[in-house]
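Q: I have 109 residues here and want to know how they pack in 3D. Can you give me a structure?
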Amino acid sequence: MVDDGSYETATRVRDLDPGLPIDDPERIEGAVDSIADALDASWLESLRSSSRSRRLSPAAFRYQLVELARAADACVVLPEGTEPRIVQAAVACAERGIARSVPRVRRTR
């Protein structure tokens, strides 16, 4: 927590020298102590007990989506079942067990 605004604080943090020699245990301990003293323990505790939903990475989201699709055991009707890209996607879905596909046949009169 700081008294200044976020812009001023971010500017000061940007200007800090990030160098901390690995062979200087006194400076390392001083930095750790300084950070620990500045942390608000109740705020940290509130983060742990927060009811906010976890954010997913794009890969984790795709994985979860594929698993939900597999569990649904859906059959998808493809309106453009002769389009090559649609056919490729249908084959990939079938091979990975994501969904079964059925091309929609257009009847001409």
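Q: Anything worth noting?
A: The two ends are 73 Å apart (CA to CA). The longest helix spans residues 58-72.
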